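User: I'm putting together a teaching handout on how sequence relates to shape, and I'd like one worked example. Could you take Exocyst subunit Exo70 family protein from Kalanchoe fedtschenkoi, show the sequence you're using, and then write out its predicted structure as tokens right after it?

Assistant: Happy to. First the sequence, then the structure tokens directly below it.
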Amino acid sequence: MSIISSLPPSHPTATLPMAMEESISSAQWLIAKWSCKSISATSPPTFLFVTNNQEARDYIHCVNGLRTIMDFYFSTHSPSPNTAVAHNLMQSAMKRLEMEFHHLLSINSDDFNAALTSCADGECDILSNPFAEDLKMIAHCMIRAGYGLELVRAYKSVRKNAVDEELVKLGFQRLRSLKLKGMGDGMLDQTVQAWIHAMFLAVGRVFNGERILCDHIFGGASDGLVESSFAETATEGANSVFLTGEAIASAKGMRSTEIIFRLMDMHNAIQEAIPLIESVFSFESTSSTQRQVLDLLFKLRHSIHANLEDFESSVRKHSTKPAVPGGGIHYLTQTAMDHIARLAGYTAVLSSIVTDHPSAAEKTRMPESFFDTSAASESPISIRFARLILVLLCKLDKIAETYRDISLSYLFLANNLHLVVERVRCTPSLLNLMGEAWVITHHKTAKKYASKYEFAAWHRVIKYVTLDESCASLSGKERLRKFKAAFEEAVRKQRSWTVVDGRMKEDLKASIARKVVSAYEACVDDLLKGDESTVVRLRPADLEIYISDLFRGVVDSSSSGSSSDSSSTSSRRMFFGR
């Protein structure tokens, strides 16, 4: 309470100068006692708010009263020698309070950091520290006296370093120093995950906590100082955090297939953090941080889209040689579908990115069989995934052409298309994009490939024991000899071929046995006409045993039918950098 406000209403105004002189005299004694000039150069200073809490409150009360007296003199234009005295006392008091504020903030920074970094949902009990109220009291006193700039200077000199130290503890200094080019998948994953974790802590604890501290100390006295103090201490650190993210998003030479997933993880993390970022950095003076976050999102989206295009291009340009011995699953099929299935898990972020690039989702360039009738299947993201799979299937067609044996090429297509269909069917997010109709259509196509394999591989055997016109000129014995030779050759070759799916394998064996054995049984007696002296007759049971031994998948380069004897392992590299 000031000396003026404490006077009774009936007190004659003539007594005011005397009362104010007494108040100035009292203030002069207390301010002189704690003057910065009284600090010894040879001994550590004594701090008022640390040693004597009651006298500290008296000091604040005294300075507030002095401010009221000065306001009275200025408002009434009353000339008085006390004006200069009061002004000098105020300057001395402000220097002392600035020093006290700096000291209290310094000795309690670690405690404040601990309390602020444990804040949850924007609420924090920093009042558990008794000096928090002292800092607020000093700040409000200095603000009323017009010394806000000095106050912000003192606050920044302590808290900016405290914020920077917290960011160092979170690992941002180490992250900034990393060389991203040529970084392996494992290290890349660790780096991005470390950045995401540190970013959440920086926004949710460090910067949010600093905003809470600024609001507590300066709030209610000056919104402008809340803004300027927070901007001075937090903006540079925040920009550093998101610049590190930009370095990752814009890194050149990072061609691993894993990078797109890490970029999408970063994108999702930032999207999740944006509401809090907008709340914490809501001031005009901190809008640069919000802009930087948006720039980072833009760079991430650009990099994700470019990486998606790179993936499609890498599949399109993948070498068609060497073919897989035995017609099994090509490495490209396995790795591409693994990649596509994982991409489908990021449908939300990819949907918005693909929508921003409509040229990448033109339905007119796609076969009608690649769409079902659902609305979801015609969305840009569904079309984009359908196109990725179509590019893969077209490449598999090209690879199939490298087989010398057409029946093996059909078996290769049946195997690989079956895997593609099964990955779509068993991946809920991918099935949702492609639709049940797509699965049904392409499952039928895989079965057609299997049927074409069966006809191409076994018609040349069966024709000798049927009414095939090409064998009409052969005698019965000659036809049986040729049947036996063709059958043995087919078994020898196809024993090392591969049918990956167990059900498809058994279905093919059953179908082959049914057609071969039934045709053989139906005409073998007629062909021999009772003369078996020159023909080693095969029993139907023997045929079934031989057929049951097919598709063992034991690679025999002499019977693989591929255009190259090289193992598929030589192609087991990442897509990028081929």
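A couple of points you could highlight for students: Residues 1-14, 556-560, 563-578 have pLDDT under 50 and may be disordered. Residues 464 and 471 are 6 Å apart (CA to CA).
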